[in-house]
Amino acid sequence: MNEPVVNESVQRMIPQRSQGSFRRLAGSWETLLIFIAVAIFFINVQASPYFLDPWNLSDATFNFTEKAMIAFAMALLIVSGEIDLSVASIIALASTAMGFALQLGADTPLLVLVGLGTGLLCGAFNGLLVASLGLPSIVVTIGTLSLFRGIAYIVLGDQAYSGYPDSFAFFGQGYVWWVITFEMVLFAVAALVFGLLLHRTGFGRAVYAIGNNPTAALFSGIRVPRVKFLLFLMTGVMAGVAAVCLTSRLGSTRPSIAFGWELEIVTMVVLGGVNILGGAGTIPGVVLAAIIMGMVTFGFGLLNVPGIVMSIFIGLLLILVIALPKVLAAAAARLK
Amino acid sequence: MDNALLSLQGITKVFPGVRALSEVALELYSGEVTALVGENGAGKSTLVKVLTGIHSPDGGQILLDGKTVKFANPHDAASAGITAIHQETVLFDDLSVAENIFIGHAPRGRFGLIDRGAMRREAAVLLEKVGARIDPSTRLRNLGIASKHQVAIARALSIDARIVIMDEPTAALSQQEIEELYALVETLKRDGKAILFISHKFDEIFRIADRYTVFRDGEFVGRGRIKETDSASLVRMMVGRDVEGVFPPRTSEIGEPVVEVSGYAHPTEFDDLSFTLCRGEILGFYGLVGAGRSELMQSLFGMTRPSSGVLVIDGVTVTSSSPADAIAAGLVYVPEDRGGQGAITGLPIFRNVSLPSLSAVSHEGIRGGFVSMAKEFALTQKYVSRLELKASALDQQVGQLSGGNQQKVVIAKWLATQPKVIILDEPTKGIDIGSKAAVHAFMRELAAEGLAVIMVSSEIPEVLGMSDRIFVMRAGRKVAEYDRDSATPELLVRAAAGIDGSAQAA
Amino acid sequence: MSHSRDVLLGLAVIVLVGVVSLRFPGFAAPGSLAGVFNDSAILIILALGQMAVILTRCIDLSMASNLALVGMITAMINASFPAFPIAGLIVLAILIGGLLGGINGLLVWKAGIPPIVVTLGTLTIFRGLIFVLTDGQWVNAHEMSASYKAFPRAEFLSTPVLSWFAVLTIIGMAVFLTRAPAGRAMYAAGGNPNAAVYAGIDTGKTRALAFVIAGGLAGLSGYLWVSRYAVAYVDVAGGFELDVIAACVIGGISIAGGVGTVVGCVLGALFLGVIKNALPVVNISPFWQLAISGAAIIIAVILNARAEKRPGRLILERAVAAPVANVSRSSAAQRGADSA
Prior knowledge:
The complex is a heterotrimer.
Chain A lengths: L20 H6 L2 H19 L6 H7 L1 H18 L7 H17 L4 H25 L4 H20 L4 E2 L7 H4 L1 E3 L2 E2 H19 L1 H11 L1 H6 L4 H27 L1 E2 L7 H11 L11 H20 L4 H29 L1
Helix pairs in contact in A: 2-14, 4-9, 4-10, 4-12, 4-13, 4-14, 5-6, 5-7, 5-12, 6-7, 6-12, 9-10, 13-14
Chain B lengths: L5 E10 L2 E11 L4 E5 L6 H8 L7 E6 L2 E3 L4 H6 L2 E4 L11 H6 L13 H14 L15 H14 L4 E5 L7 H16 L3 E5 L3 H7 L2 E6 L2 E7 L5 H9 L17 E9 L7 E6 L3 E5 L6 H8 L7 E6 L2 E2 L5 H6 L2 E4 L3 H5 L6 H6 L18 H14 L16 H13 L5 E5 L7 H16 L3 E5 L3 H7 L2 E6 L2 E7 L5 H9 L3 H5 L1
Parallel strand pairs in B: 3-8, 3-9, 6-7, 7-8, 13-18, 13-19, 16-17, 17-18
Antiparallel strand pairs in B: 1-2, 1-4, 4-5, 9-10, 11-12, 11-14, 14-15, 19-20
Helix pairs in contact in B: 4-5, 13-14
Chain C lengths: L1 H22 L6 H26 L7 H18 L5 H24 L5 H20 L11 H5 L4 E2 L2 E2 H19 L1 H11 L1 H6 L4 H27 L10 H11 L11 H20 L6 H21 L15 H16 L1
Antiparallel strand pairs in C: 1-2
Helix pairs in contact in C: 1-12, 2-7, 2-8, 2-10, 2-11, 2-12, 3-4, 3-5, 3-10, 4-5, 4-10, 7-8, 8-10, 11-12, 11-13, 12-13
């Protein structure tokens, strides 16, 4: 037991990986999601002959692309151990700001700028409260959830803005090529950008470190407040992007726009395998979760199942996919 | 007093990857104090958790009055008359002192509701008994460390127990409070309680214990009566060899000053601290737990801002608003709380090591900002192999490693930043003897390479064996400074506990 | 420290009432204030349930959905069996609500799923179930029996029954949370879960109990809400879960667990209630309400954080001769004086 410490003349090299890449992939959450996605795809094909129509499929993407754009940024935020429940309200405020600018005679480029700028400001406000003042993000963003949408209500009341210029319609209604919508392109670009940011950059490393253990991350020289602030900023901007798309698609602004989306977006992120407590999760997982939720919605829609029943399914899915691994692990431990 | 009140036989406790207790035995007798002796990581704390029902043992049996008992939860243990004063204070900051003493077993009035008046009165009696001058309705958050400890002791006594476990009860107490605690132990002995006393301080053990039991690396080594042993043989049992020659000899040349700290102060934690540290020097910081040493180090590292004071590294004044600034200035800190502050246990080894060096392991040119995994692995390999890390792969989670190897990951992380000054806070606490020796040897190597090393340690042999100079703190202030040659264990203990050295010597 | 906070919040509510009644003296009349309390009664009941959950370091987003589902069930029972006694209906509402809360509690306790995920899921499931039950149909006033609709408005000691339910809940929760061992366990389990284990408190069980209490109160509120407004449909109280959390946050219930008083919680709910009732009086569009409660939450959370700000460890001895215990007490008193 008290062997002397021997200095080996040849230093032992430690292998880089404990498992081959195939085994790592096979055991991953994303693989499970791919199986679920394929299963739902075939169920949908069986259930409705209209499902495989390219134009139908293209139309169906609208029900997740805007939410997913925000979900990517939200994924990083949740990996870092924070959350932003105000995103849907940011959409409402950004859309209202665009409508307001429209009344003042803004043209399409300016409208987009106003939408993105509003998102940026809202994100900065959240970031300031959470990162600089150290307040709990769940409470802060419940507050800004009320505040941002509340401002939209103050401005609009029960009125609506409409009459957006035709050129503005492209963002939410335009096609880039054949059935490929502009929103699909944005979705893909956002997935790529946030995927690279989280998985390939030092910033992404810092995000994981903070989510795993914010104290140890700080002790390792990570500027935790700065990283968190930037994450809120990004989430705000993506909500601004979604606001541009959604406003363009609907062609009007009401203060109730995107009501309740925050919970759908969080569900999407969590379903994608992001740990709600922080520290783990991937962008490919969120992409798959977005597609699964989109297909479920679309498939049920084809079968004339009302949206609220689909929400039961999504709610159950959320609880089951998180409970199952834990319950199985507990059962396995008990068997031992 | 021939029959043991409580007897543990063949108790085994296994955690994933660690055999914390391996068929250990222990006997406690009414009206006697049994000292449990062992190094950090010997399994003492695990044993306390088994005795108090927090962990259930994987093997062996516990006999109370000769009858087998099982503790499924802390409540069972308390009902069987076992109470403990835990090492870390496990209390509730936002509850009152009275409630902290009685939570879980408060006196009940009508309808089974808590009788708050009775609770306050009984709390006052208990506080009086432990010599604490605290108002029972104070919120715990507003108490100092020593007072919190007294509340913990009062809580332990609130259960009318036959067996009292004291896990390093004097670690944070001043000399006067320690004397009051000894008096309390005498009272408990007279009342016929069996006391298990865990301590690192030999003078204390020889003063109040009647018997001893020694553990080493989770195994039972021996037991006997205190009268029939001496400290040298206890140490031999504890460590498994003689203490002499355990520490590597000094090989470094002490160079020019690197760090100059002057007038460091904080409103509640420390005051008026100044020292100089040279290249190749190891400066030891000794003091009781809670003397403000870690707080000073964390302030130097940029975690908290001092209210006044200047830190100069290599002639440049450093003002850090976060550790990132301190690291950039060449000062790094290996914290005492390895799992909480040092390593990110949920992440793989290589991601821990590269964390403060992310810009160094990034691509250059057009892919700038993107991390190069090849560079990351190369950097990690270089430093962990220098530290002889034992791991199955570099992508293994740090949490799966033993304490000693986790510590090596933390040190490797810092060496990769090529620092000028390294602060190690209790660097060998809770790690096995092999790793301990490796860490000690490595500290010497670092000093020999010209690093300035600060070591905070509460273990006197380590402080004496490793330091070139020793700085002693008490209650947030510097109380003494010794050369390696002039320091003795007695001097350090007296200075740290606040006994006037000159008066005692005269 | 938390008591002084309650006093401050109480003063804020009084000042708010005072400012409004400066321009509209009728607002501060006893009858008008009783009306404000009656209007806030359901929010108070729900906030007290949420408080228990938040104390244990959890959160319940499903309370409004629970309320809507149970409210719908009581309305449907009443529409089909008008003879079913109201008292039985109320007991049933509390039981069903408690059962739904128990599902949340079990998933948090036994399956170890984070509370925010569990209740995010049950939020959509409970509300979806209303649709499954009704196929989207409403239960309208004319389908409800007269006694069903009249009960919350019935007066006892010239105070509506609705207000009495709030009063009883306040008293019940106050006694439970300050005097009952299980209530104190909630503070302990949320304040320091690690230490709670040493004190023999089962954190998981305590959390589950908090969810059952929140569920039961949501069920009770379900009957009160639907009978008061005399209509039941899928979107009843949609989004109200956030108002409930807002009341708790304004009331000083720390989202980190273990801190908060019943008085604070009630004042938080009343604060929102006063604003809601004052807006039409001072001729501000009700559309301002959402933004004002949002701003109130943000201000409250900033103030809470300042009050809870941890001082450094008390290591330095202030006076050379005094023993440590006395020193820390006097310094605590100093800090108390500073913050007051």
